[in-house]
Sequence to fold (739 residues):
Amino acid sequence: MKFILFFSIFYIAPHLFAGLSGHVRVGSKVFTESYVLAEIISQVLERQGLTVERRFGLGATGIAFESLKNNEIDILPEYTGTIAQAILKKEISTVSEINKELAPYDLTISKSLGFNNTYVFGFLKKSKLYGKITKMTELKNYPDLKYSVDHEFSRRKDGLKALERHYNYEFKHVSELDHNLAYQVLEEGQVDIINLYSTDAKIKKIGIELIEDDLSFFPNYDAVAFASKKWIKKNQLAWQKLIEIQGAIDEKAMVELNAMVELDKLSFAQAARRFLNSYYKENRMLKKKKKFDLIKLTQEHLFLVFISLIASICVALPLGILGSLHSVLGQGILTISGLLQTIPSLALLCFLIPFFGIGTPPALIALFLYGLLPIVRNTYVGLTQIESGLKESARSLGLSRWQQLRFVELPLAMPSILAGIKTSAIINVGTATLASFIGAGGYGTPIVTGLALNETSIMLYGALPAAGLAVILHCLFEFIDRWVLPKGLRI
Amino acid sequence: MIEIKGLSKNYGSVKALQPLNLRLSVGKTHVCLGSSGCGKSTLLRLICGLIEPTEGEVIINGKKVSTSSQRKTALNIGYVIQEGGLFPHLTAKENIELAAKVNGWNKINIKKRRSYLMELMTMKESLLEKFPKQLSGGQRQRFSLMRALMLDPEIILMDEPLGALDPVVRSHLQIELKDIFEKLNKTVVMVTHDVWEGAFLGDTISLFDQGQLLQHGKFSDLMTSPANSFVSSFLKAQWPPKEVMEWL
Fold:
C-alpha cells in the first residue's frame, strides 16, 4: 500500500509542476546558430511543460538586448563576448563578472552551453595561401589580400578597428558583406579572407583554414542562455532544467547543428529536436552506465534526514513540553503543527522556493516542518498521560517544576517521545526523496530521473535504497530505545 | 499540630469535602475512615497543599498551607499515595534518595539516612537495586514509606497504604507500621476503608461519609456512642457474619 502511494506521488508530481509552470518568450537573433540555440532552449522548456512563444529573428545584438531588458522576451541565446563588449562595453569575460554587471538590469546569464563561438579569420584550403599563413601576425606580409567582414564586426567597438590596433596593421582592401554572402564571394575568389564564426557550418563543408589569433585579440564568445531574473524567479524549476544542458553543446556539435540547417536543409526545430533526442538518450545511457553514485546519494539523503530531524527534535521537544504545561497553549501548538502536516509535501516545497530558492535549504526546512508534528504530539501525549498519582508523588516530594520534568515526567514520557522521533525520522526518509524535485539531491534523484525518462529501473535505484534506509533506521531506533529508555520501563 | 478550619473542597458542583473543623495533635496516628469517594483522599491532598481548598484553611505549626508554598510544605510532610506511587523508571534506592538529592544532601548523609530507614523497615540491602516492578507489593509499600520518611518530616500522610496487599502481608505490615509509628513519634494521618485497620493503628478515628465528617474520636467512643446510625452500621459492616461470630 505504502509502495503504491509512494509511486503515485511521483507520477502526480510532474503534472503538478506542469500545472505550476507558465509561459516563456524565447528570442533569437538573425543567424542560424542563434535560431538553433533558441529552438533548443524552447524545446527544453516545452519538455518541462511550459508554453513557449518564439520571438525569433530580433535583428542585431542591440535589439535583442533591448527586448530582453524591456521584458519583451524572457530568454535569448547570446555570447559572453557580445554581452561584455557590445552591451556592457566592459573588458570582462567570465560569467561571474558579467553577471555582476548585469545585476542592475535584472538580467543574468547561464554558464557556457559548451562552445566558444569566437570570431575567426579564414581562407579556402585550396587557395594559394594554404601553408603560408597560419597566424594573424603573418597577414602583414601580404598587404594586397582582399578581406570581407560582416557589418557588425566592421562597426562595433571591439571589431575591425580594434583588431587593427591590436595587431598594429591596417587592412587595406576590406569590403562589408553579409555573412552568408561572404562565403559565396570567398568561393568565387572575389575575396581572399573572410571573418567567420568558429562554429560556422561551412568550415567543414567548403574547407576553410582558420587563422590562429596569436595575439589573443578575440574575446571569448561562450554561448550562454541570457535571461531575465524576473522570469527565472517565477520559473525556478524550468530554469534549473534548462541550465542542465550547460556544457552539453561543444564546438563540433554546434558546427554539426549549423550544418544540419544550412546544408542539409533541416528546419531549426528539426535540428534542435535531433540534438535533444540524442542528448537525452546519451544522458540516459550515461546515467545508466554511471548508475548514480550511491554513496553520494546516501550521504545527501542522510544529511537531509538527520539535519532536519535534529532541528525538529530541538524545536518540537520544547514545544511539546510547553504544550503539556499549559492546556490552551498545548491545543494551539498541536493544531498548528497538525496544520503543517496537511500541506502536501510537493506544494510545501514549492511554497518555500520564493523564500529560500531551490536546493538543500528549502528541502531541509520542509523536512524540518514535517518532522515537528510526530515529536510534538508524542511529547505532549507522553507527558500528559503520566499517571496523576506519580505526578502527585513528585510534587509531594518537594521537587520544583523543572525537577519534576527532569527526574520524573520526561523519563516516564520517554517511550512515547522516542516513538515520535522514530516516526518523524522514517517519514523524513520517504519525504526526502521528494526533495530532489527542487534539486536537493538524495535518493530522489534517480527517482526523478527515472520519471523523466520513464525508466522504472532507474526509479528503483532510488526507491529501493530509500526503503532500505527506512528499515535500517527502524532497527537503529530499536537499538537506541534500549540504550536511552530507562531500564525500569523496559522490564 | 494540624489545624483544619472550615475546610471544604468542591469540584464543580460535586462537594468532595464539606466544611470541616479538626485538630490533629502531634505524635499521634489519626485515621480517616470511610468508603471510597467519601473525601478522605481530598483531605490528604488539602493538608499537603497539592490542591487549593474552596473555603477554609489548613494550618500546620501556625502556618497556613497553600499550593503556592507547597514545595516548602512538602519538606515537612511525607505523602504516600495509594499503591505507593514509586517511580517505575527508578530503582528502589533512586526512589528513596531522590528528594534528598534534589534538596542538596551530601552522599554521606543520604547513605546514613537510608541505612537507618532500611534497618527500621527490616529490608535487605539487595532490594535497593531493584525496580518497583521487580518488588513484591509489601516491599513496594515499605519503600514508598521510606521515600516519604527520607527527609525526616514531622507529618506522614498515607492514602490506603495497605489497600492492595494480600491479607497475610497486610496484617504483618499493620503490626510493623504500628511499631514504626510508635518509634518515630510522627504525626500520621492515614486514610483507610478498613475499620479494623483503623481501630488497630489509629489513636483517633474520623469517620467520613459523602464528604462529611460524621464523628471524630477514639475508636472506643465511636463504638460505644456512635453519632448516628450510619456510624454504627459502618463499624459493624465489617464484622464477620453472625454464624462466624458464633463459631468463634
